Amino acid sequence: MKKRYLLGTLAGAGLGWAVWELAKPGVRSVSRCEPSVTDLTRQHAEGFEAVDAWSAPIQPDETTDPVEWAKAVTSFNGLVEILIRARDLVVRPFGLATATDQEPPPSGFPLIAAGPSEIVCGLDDAHLDFRVGVTTTDGQVTFTTWVRINNTFGQVYWAAVRCFHPWIVRAMLQQARPTSTEANESA
Fold first, then answer.
1. What is the CATH number of domain 30-177?
2. pLDDT tens digit sequence for 11-39
3. Among the listed residues 153, 171, 177, the one whose alpha carbon sits nearest the alpha carbon of residue 30
4. What is the C-alpha R_g of the chain?
5. DSSP labels for the chain?
6. Residue 2 CB: number of other CB atoms within 10 A?
7. Minimal CA–CA distance to 133: which of 28, 30, 29, 55?
8. Cα 3 to Cα 1: distance, rounded to the nearest angstrom
């Protein structure tokens, strides 16, 4: 099924440009939720601002391994890939890290810490530092993003990215399909 997108403004909210994916059947239900704050995230995201958190149900044929979820979500394709490549073109002259500069680590972003049902990934850069917490508990996968702004350029950068960030995370989580090895072996 081909994805269709609509580009527009958030009516009455004054939040600038945003992108919405049109509703269609068979798309994973993703909802905004409270950030998942655990001992692991407290330790590795101290001093960061929690930006947003999204959760989705884990289907019976999907893994509960947070590393596999991070890998599946960061397999950029479609409009998300176009936005990531556009971001890379814009930030490259400023010396910022880009998605295409290096081979991505197994979890999609550099792994900072791991627990049995949770990982914390992230990257520190001159303009801002970020952390992504991936938690798989109670039949749900939750992605929480934290940001620490380091300078004025980081503030400008985050102001631009923040308009698209919720949509991008939601779209990436909707399209992720990390199947369970156990489910595949029993089939």
1. 3.30.530
2. 333 333 333 443 444 668 899 999 888 88
3. 171
4. 17
5. ----EEEEE-TTT---EEEEEPP-TTPPP-EE------HHHHHHSTTPEEEEEEEEEPPTTB---HHHHHHHHT---HHHHHHHHHHHHHHGGGT---TTSSPPPTTSS-EEEEETTEEEEEEE-SSEEEEEEEEEETTEEEEEEEEEE-SHHHHHHHHHHHTTHHHHHHHHHHH---B-HHHHHH-
6. 5
7. 55
8. 6
> What values do phi and psi take at 168, rounded to 5?
-65, -50
CA atoms within 13 A on the CB side of 115: 14
Distance CA 36, CA 42 (A): 10
Whether 44 and 112 have beta carbons less than 8 Å apart is answered as yes
pLDDT in tens, 52-81: 899 999 999 999 999 999 888 877 566 656
pLDDT tens digits, 104-138? 555 567 889 999 899 998 888 888 999 999 999 99
pLDDT surpassing 80 at residue 7: no
- The burial class, CB within 10 Å (0-12 / 13-18 / 19+), for 3 is middle
Which residue from 145, 144, 152, 141 is spatially nearest to 177, judged by alpha carbons? Answer: 141
pLDDT value at residue 171 = 84
